[in-house]
Amino acid sequence: MADYHFETIWDIPAPLPDVWQAILETDAWPSWWKGVQSVVVLTPGDENGIGAQRRFVWRSKLPYTLAFDMEVTRIEPMSRIEGRASGELEGTGVWRFEDTGDHVRVQYDWDVRTTRWWMNLLARSPARCSPGITTTS
Question: How high does pLDDT run on average in the chain?
Answer without folding.
Answer: 84
